[in-house]
Each structure stands twice: as C-alpha cells, then as structure tokens.
Amino acid sequence: MWADKKILLGISGGISAYKSISLARLFVKAGAQVQVVLTPDARHFVTPLTLSALTGRPVYSESFDPDTGFWYNHVELGLWADVMVIAPATANTIAKMAHGHCDNLLLSCYLSSRCTVFFSPAMDLDMYAHPGVQANIKILQSYGNRLIDAEVGPLASGLEGKGRMAEPEHIFRNIEDYFRTSTTLAGKKVLINGGPTYEHIDPVRFIGNHSTGDTAVFLAQEAHNRGAEVHLVLGPTKYKGLTFPFDVRHVTSAFEMLETCLHFASHADVIVCAAAVADYRPKVRNEQKLKKNEPTLILELEKNPDILYTLGRQKKSNQILIGFALETENGEVNAFKKLKSKNADAIVLNSPGEHTGFATATNQVNLLYADGTILRSELVLKEKLAAWIWDTLSKSLLRS
Ligand code: C5P
Predict the structure, then answer these.
(1) Sequence-separated (6 or more) residues with CB below 8 Å from residue 329
(2) Do 37 and 60 meet the contact criterion of CB atoms below 8 Å apart?
C-alpha cells in the first residue's frame, strides 16, 4: 500500500517538530517517498541534515537559493504529492493556510497542492482553545483538509492540557487509513439525511426533537473522504452557516426534507436516512403567535410523510437504502420490522442511553441486514462509528 506513495511533509516552527523526525522515518520505513519542506522557523527546531539523511532527499525551506538563484518549484512539489502532511501545524501556519497567505515555501506548496492535506496542530493549551485558532481550524476543515486533532497532556510550557501534537504513530495510522479507504466509495453517489425536523405551530413555536445531525455529518464527511459524491440534507442544526467540501441542503420541516431528498434520490447509489423526522405536524400552522388566553390548548396533529418509506417504495434494483432506528424496547424485533416495512437493505439500530443515541459524543449500534445478520459495533466516538458503518457496508452491501 505504501510503495511509491509520495508524501510532502511540511514542518512548521514548534517544539514538537522533533517528533516529525520519527514521523518521516515511519513513512520512509513503510516504503513511501518523503519530501520535507520546513518553514524558516522550523529550522531552529530540527535540522535539514537530519531530515535529508532520513528521507534521502534534500530538504527545502526557502523559495530559492540566494547564492545560485535556483528556484524551488512549489507548484511541482504541490502536484507531486499523493498526500501533504503538515505536522506540527502551528497557530501561525494554520492561520496563514486558512487565509491564503503565502510568505514561505511550505505555504506556497500548500496552496498549489491538489492532493488531500492533513494537518496536526501543536501549541499551548490556551492558544489552542482561542476562538481565533478554532475558527481557522474550522476553515481548513471546510476546505476538505483533514484535522489530526491535538492531544491532551504535558506541554512545553509546563502546563497541562490540549495542544500536544498527535504522536507520530497516530498520524502515520491516519495516513495509512486514508490510503486504505480513500477510493472505496469512488464513483458512488451518496444521499444522506440527518438532524431533526421542525414542524411549525405558529411563527415562533415548533415541534422538534434533540437530534444534533452529528451522525449524518460524520457519515457524509467519511463518505466524501472515501471518494463519494455526497448530498447531505440536514434539518435545523448547529451546522447551518458552515461550509463543507460536499453539497449540503438545509431544510426545516419533514415535507421540505422529503422534497429535497426526492430531488437527489433517483441518482443516488446509496441512501442513508439518519434524520429524526417528526412523525406528526400541527394540522394548522397559525399565521400569528398563539395567545395564552385559554386554560388548556389542544393542538391537532396530522401524520408527516415517512421519507424512508417513500424512498423504499421507489427504490431501484441497484440502489442501497439504509435506515436508522432508535428503540427503547425490543430493539432488534422492531428494527427488523422497520427494515421490512420500509423496504430498506439494512437498519442501523441504536438506543438512547448515557453514552448512546441523541446528543452524545459516542454511540454503539447494531447493523441489521435483511437476511437476519446482525453486526455489532463497539462503543466509539461518532466519527469512528461513521468509519465503521462505511467499512462494514463496503464489505457487505457495497461489495462490487
Ligand atoms: O419508524 P421510525 O421513525 O422509528 O423509523 C426510523 C427510520 O425512518 C429512520 O431512518 C428515519 O430517518 C426514518 N423516518 C423517515 N420519515 C419519518 C419517520 C422516520 O424517513 N417520518
């Protein structure tokens, strides 16, 4: 897998640059070609000699050699790479990457690159937590750059907290996962829905639920990372206003979600219905805010369309349809019933708990197939769960 892989390793000026020497060695030992580019400040922390001895290539830092006038072609370097890894990525380098600055070779290579870029931040805890840094990290993620998040532990300042660069082995595994999975959904069109729906009672009130949309966003991100063309239809969530490297449609009600899903469904190879769609909506949407004049208020509700059911009815023979089920009792029996009645190919079953279900960072699910097979995931972060779901589907329903 690693043979002939070309890695552009950008090192910026932080104390954890010393760890990037081990990282370069891991890449080389695995069989990759590694080209190191240092920012001018990184040379205070690690020497070009060490890195060129390890990688067998000259290490670049300046845009040109002042003695010979030789110009290092950043465009060529950017296009040469299969993957660019910036580790450590300091607050300064992250800010410049986010805003298109270009005052050193590492930055011009970054701007010229067309490959996937990973960045591994490293800085003191308060710098890392600063909203300016966090906003810049989000900007980079919106470009499709992959964050390898900083770790918690002792820092060079003597303080302890989040800001340590991820360990070289961890960064290495991220790149290895990327090479393993980056094309597993290539050529596939994936439609995902997620989040809650809001059903208006009057101009200021609605019926909704606690769904965050996180699982759908992670599934979409992971499908995009694996090469799929992704369309994500999201109910009202904190993600509105953020930019993603794939198509995102924000909707409010179940009807709008259905309409938007129908728009993409006929072209989709895989459809994942992860949304917590409101089952009912108020029969009347009041034009004016309801007054509290009466001691009781009775709202008449009517049934919403079932999006998964609708998509199941019109499913094409080459389409894969995945539903979700959140059950509090008789989970598997109910989920199998849903799978059948909605004509899905698999159901992701989860149950609400302290660490599972809605609005939790982690989840544990069972994947139920039409033939009765049940596969259990571990209790993991929802990001990891998204990877597990695509890994598992790639080995079963999506195996070509
Ligand atoms: O029937 P239940 O709501 O438990 O089924 C859950 C599955 O059905 C989820 O995949 C959810 O997205 C989908 N669903 C839907 N439209 C609804 C209700 C649920 O698509 N109105």
Answers:
(1) none
(2) yes
Mean pLDDT of 60-87: 91
Cα-to-centroid distance, 245 and ligand 1 (Å): 27
Looking at the annotation, which residues are catalytic? 209
**Is 1's pLDDT higher than 90?**
no
Q: Is the pLDDT of residue 51 over 80?
A: yes
CA of 324, closest atom in ligand 1: 10
In CATH terms, 6-181 corresponds, of 3.30.420.10, 3.40.640.10, 3.50.50.60, 3.40.50.1950, to: 3.40.50.1950
Per-residue confidence (pLDDT) for residue 400, from 0 to 100: 72
Contact in structure between 88 and 11 (CB atoms under 8 Å):
yes
What class does CATH assign to 189-394? alpha beta
Minimum CA distance residue for ligand 1 atom 21: 306
Contacts of 303 (CB under 8 A, 6+ apart): 279, 280
Q: What number does the ligand 1 atom closest to the CA of 305 have?
A: 21
- Contact between 339 and 368 under an 8 Å Cβ cutoff? The reply is yes
What does pLDDT average to over the chain? Answer: 96
Rounded Cα gap, residues 51 and 296, in angstroms? 75
Summarize pLDDT for 103-138 with one digit per residue, the tens: 999 999 999 999 999 999 999 999 999 999 999 999
pLDDT of residue 133: 98
